[in-house]
Design a protein that fits this description.
It contains twelve helices and nine strands. With 249 residues, the chain is α/β, with parallel strands linked by helices. 45% of the residues lie in helices and 21% in strands. It has a single domain, classed as EAL domain (TIM Barrel). It binds guanosine-5'-monophosphate (2 copies), manganese (II) ion and sodium ion (NA). The site of one guanosine-5'-monophosphate (G) has 13 residues, from strand 6. This is EAL domain-containing protein.
Length: 249
């Protein structure tokens, strides 16, 4: 449906934009913002990543795009008055490509962002595909000093031994579990168990997809360290948050 040449051109010409969604601590203060890419297409309007990332992943367009996203997110975060973290989603293809730790380090140096303010979000798939390669990559990234979050946790195939072995910082409970609260009896027990598991392993636990006060109350009561979702803050242009709060973030 889209031409790859259009997408490649969009990377450099301002048509790709980053939205940011806040992650709040239990007391309601913002701790981090997750960068979420969008394509502001000249004729088709705003296009979400599920509609163009697969196209980018057909060749090395994804690497160029991911580096642009990473640089943009780091540059943005480096400009904030508050030293909040920024989280960036990593395509599994980018994760396996070339010199990711070197690229990350170069972008941190270029933008002046402290490494511990960057969290890279990976999905369970990258750990399962090639254990040794993933382990080596994660160790190098941790040597650079960045944080690693396991995104969409609970939907993939990661075994508990992976959780023990990999140098992770954060578990992000997939939004399907939050969504099922109050609807599927087991979801409360699953969330409670994952919070306990994450904390026992020394990880921060974040819940995604928070869409109501009831869900928020439950997640906070269960000890989730961070909450993220439409109820606590929709993804938006970062300037929208500045206008909303009337101050720099
Ligand atoms: O932002 P939205 O909810 O439409 O995102 C849909 C999917 O696209 C999610 O799986 C999200 O992780 C992914 N995504 C959003 N932004 C990025 C990005 O910058 N890079 C990659 N690789 N995936 C992204
Ligand atoms: O896979 P990942 O967790 O990175 O995906 C994030 C996606 O989830 C983004 O596209 C974002 O727009 C979307 N999202 C964020 N908060 C909510 C929410 O409360 N409900 C739903 N349905 N989607 C959300
Ligand atoms: Mn994510
Ligand atoms: Na997720």
């Amino acid at each position: 449906q889209f031409l790859k040449s259009e997408l490649r051109a969009a990377i450099g010409n301002g048509a790709l934009i980053l939205h940011f969604q806040p992650q709040l601590a239990a007391d309601g203060t913002a701790v981090a913002f997750e960068a979420l890419v969008r394509w502001n297409h000249p004729t088709r309007g705003m296009i979400g990543p599920v509609d163009f990332i697969p196209l980018a992943e057909e060749d090395d367009t994804i690497v160029k795009m991911s580096e642009w996203i990473l640089r943009g997110a780091c540059r943005e975060a480096a400009s904030w008055e508050n030293p909040l973290r920024v989280a960036v989603n990593l395509s599994p293809l980018h994760f396996r490509s070339g010199n990711l730790p070197g690229t990350v380090q170069a972008i941190l140096e270029e933008t002046g962002l402290a490494p511990d303010r960057l969290e890279l979000e990976i999905t369970e798939g990258v750990m399962v595909q090639d254990f040794e390669q993933a382990m080596s990559m994660l160790r190098k990234l941790r040597d650079v000093g960045v944080r690693i979050a396991l995104d969409d946790f609970g939907t993939g195939y990661s075994s508990l031994s992976y959780l023990q072995a990999f140098p992770l910082s954060t578990l992000k409970i997939d939004r399907s579990f939050t969504e099922n609260l109050g609807r599927v009896e087991q979801s409360a027990a699953i969330i409670r168990s994952v919070v306990g598991l994450g904390h026992a392993l020394g990880l921060e636990v974040a819940a995604e997809g928070v869409e109501s006060q009831e869900q928020l109350d439950f997640l906070i009561a269960e000890g989730c360290d961070l909450v993220q979702g439409y109820f606590t803050g929709r993804p938006a242009d970062i300037d929208a948050f500045r206008r909303l709060t009337g101050r720099d973030i």
